[in-house]
Specification:
The protein is of the alpha+beta class. Helices cover 25% and strands 23% of the residues. The protein folds into three domains: 2-209 and 250-372, Alkaline Phosphatase, subunit A (3-Layer(aba) Sandwich), CATH 3.40.720; 385-452, 2-Layer Sandwich (Arylsulfatase, C-terminal domain); 460-594, Sandwich (Jelly Rolls), CATH 2.60.120. It has helices at 2-19, 60-67, 82-91, 95-98, 118-124, 140-143, 174-188, 234-240, 244-274, 310-313, 339-346, 361-364, 424-441, 445-455; strands spanning 35-41, 69-76, 128-133, 149-152, 193-199, 281-286, 317-321, 328-335, 375-379, 385-389, 393-398, 404-408, 462-466, 473-476, 481-483, 495-498, 506-510, 518-524, 537-543, 546-552, 562-568, 570-576, 583-585, 587-594. The longest helix has 31 residues, at 244-274. The relative contact order is 0.13.
């Protein structure tokens, strides 16, 4: 850690030199430096693009971009959700280093002001810098340093359930964003520019307009993705129960949303060509993360992106334009901490001080066949995890339990079969490399706790996780049923339930942020007409120091909160069907009573 501290101090000192103290003149771009256009499509799984293997032709303009440039087939994000991933894209630091690993609020300290960022480097070297950003969790407070112009559609990150709050933003939709971008290009075509465009699409909800909903089948063709709540989220509730037709329909809608935003990517690329800028501009297209879409039923049967599986981590990287060869596919490993070094190298500019990533330009130019023998990822939301992968294997470490999963990506690209027991030497090798990386990147415990306490601010003293939240609540074991009868009195108008059994069916309520302090933990349930209800349903509160189990009689106390226990630093609550009757999955409340 001392090495990292000294390096960070040197980086801050270097930043003052190259970014300029007060009054220092800006640098100047050489005449041969190209323009740079970065296109980011939010929540875009690489494997859902046609040019990455999707049999549906859902991305014709992105496909054309790949054909006239270079496509990286094995490119991965360092974090499975928005803020940490974009923090890494703009700094070339892993999330544990730049510090943004949890959900944040306006006014919260984010990336250190002395940390150099991508746009600052372009600005210092004479580029005119502009950003259009349509996700507040990746907005100006996080990524805005160094831009001459910055347009942000969503300024509030207080409501983290972004699926429920996407309407009514001036620049939210791809059509209106594109209209502004095209006008900006026309006004600034004579300038040397760094233009950063962050489309919110194809982020959920997956609601493409009819002309883009092209892939319908007999799988609920009349249904669309409208959010998680009971009234509108019927498709997601069906998928959460393992309904394969519902899951198929969600993939159809996802591909339709990709087809929708692809059209506007095409309009921007066409504008570059019509203005004569296509030969003077490097274009880079990527994403921040993917989406699980119920692809891991054993342990992450969710719609969202809180895992370290490739459905979340595998993202596109396509580079085309000035000085880039055409029609190449590069299979070497890449990481989104490599994005900033690669962009700067393509522009002929120096790298960011203390960058943890590497330029991928030597791969693009064919000068080497590998830059990264390993790539890493981390997750602090819901369940803290770390992962490392080489060309064939990936190891995922659960920091709470110490459990390690190993996947043979050559034989099992879907990561459905854990082969750790059969490959102890591979586990040992990857574990050693992962722990070496963690030692280098994990902040001191005091620093981490200080960060986490910021995220457990007073306004989050009461947290309710319920069956309308598609990422925090997890059902496993199959055989679940849904109740949405208004007269049942369920929290939020619905619940899930299952028959008594051997405990193999479980429900887990988790929070996004660490819960530090003493909490009262309570459960709420209604009275659905599901037959004989359990009188001894087991609810286990897991904390950082152990666990305690309470038994709940569902025949009593319906429609009110029932206290399960008061504990220190809770992690999650788990219920199983090892009971004498049907069990109900509804809502759990974590209420902090002392810090």
């Amino acid at each position: 850690m001392m090495k990292r501290f000294v390096t960070a101090c040197m980086a801050a000192w270097t930043a003052m030199l190259f970014l300029g103290a007060a009054g220092m003149a800006q640098g100047n771009a050489r005449p041969d430096h190209p323009n740079v256009l970065v296109l980011v499509l939010d929540q875009l799984r690489a494997d859902q693009l046609h040019c990455y293997g999707n049999p549906r032709s859902d991305s014709p303009h992105i496909d054309q971009l790949a054909q006239r440039g270079v496509r990286f087939s094995h490119f991965f994000t360092v974090a499975s959700w928005t803020s940490p991933s974009f923090g890494s894209l703009h700094t070339s630091l892993y999330p544990s280093q730049h510090g943004v690993t949890l959900f944040w609020r306006p006014g919260m300290p984010l990336i250190n002001k002395d940390t150099p960022m991508l746009a600052q480097m372009f600005k210092y070297h004479g580029y005119y810098t502009t950003a259009f950003v349509n996700n507040g969790l990746a907005g100006e407070q996080l990524t805005g340093r160094g831009f001459d112009e910055y347009y942000e559609a969503q300024r509030s990150a207080q409501d983290v359930n972004i699926t429920e709050r996407l309407a009514g933003n001036t620049l939210y939709t791809a059509p209106s964003t594109t209209e502004h971008v095209l006008a900006w290009l026309d006004r600034n075509k004579s300038k040397r520019f760094f233009l950063y465009v962050h489309f919110m699409e194809p982020h959920s909800p997956y609601d493409p307009p009819p002309q883009d909903d092209l892939y319908k089948s007999d799988a609920y063709p009349y249904m669309t993705d409208a959010g998680y709540d009971v009234a509108r989220g019927a498709l997601l509730r069906l998928a959460m129960l393992g309904d394969q037709k519902a899951i198929e329909r969600l993939y159809q809608l996802y591909d339709g949303k990709i087809h929708f935003v692809d059209r506007y990517v095409g309009e921007i690329l066409d504008q570059l060509q019509s203005l004569g800028l296509d030969q003077k501009t490097v274009v880079l297209l990527t994403s921040d993360h993917g989406e699980l879409l119920y692809s891991h039923p054993k342990d992450f049967l969710t719609f969202d992106h809180r895992s370290l599986y490739d459905a979340d981590l595998h993202i596109p990287l396509i580079v085309a334009g000035s000085g880039v060869p055409q029609g190449r596919v590069i299979d070497a490993l890449g990481s989104n901490v490599d994005t900033a070094p690669t962009i700067l190298d393509l522009a002929g500019l120096p790298d960011l001080p203390d960058a943890e990533g590497h330029s991928l330009v030597p791969l693009i130019e064919g000068k080497t066949t590998s830059v990264n023998p390993y790539v890493f990822a981390e997750e602090d939301v819901a369940i803290p995890m770390r992962s490392v992968r080489d060309a064939r294997y990936k190891l995922i470490l659960n920091l709470w339990t110490g459990k390690e999963q190993l996947f043979d990506l050559e034989r099992d690209p879907g990561e459905l079969t854990d082969v750790a027991a059969e490959n102890p030497e591979v586990v040992k090798r990857l574990d050693a490399r992962l722990r070496e990386w963690m030692k280098e990147n994990t902040p001191p415990k005091a620093v981490q706790l200080r960060r986490w306490r910021i995220y457990t601010a007073p306004e989050r003293d009461t947290i309710i996780d319920d069956q309308t939240i598609g990422g925090r609540l997890l059902l496993t074991g199959g055989g679940w049923h849904s109740d949405t009868e208004p007269q049942s009195g369920d929290y939020g108008g619905g619940c899930f339930w299952t028959e008594k059994g051997d405990g193999s069916r479980t429900a887990v309520w988790r929070n996004d942020d660490p819960m530090l302090g003493t909490y009262k933990v309570s459960v709420y349930y209604g009275h659905p007409a599901v037959g004989d209800l359990a009188t001894d349903a087991p609810f286990t509160i897991v904390t950082d120091s152990g666990e305690e189990t309470s038994r709940v009689n569902f025949n009593q106390g319906a429609g009110q909160w029932q206290l399960l226990g008061t504990v220190r630093n809770p992690r999650y609550v788990e219920e199983t069907n090892a009971a004498d009757g049907a069990i109900i999955v509804d809502a759990v409340r974590f209420e902090r009573v002392t810090p």
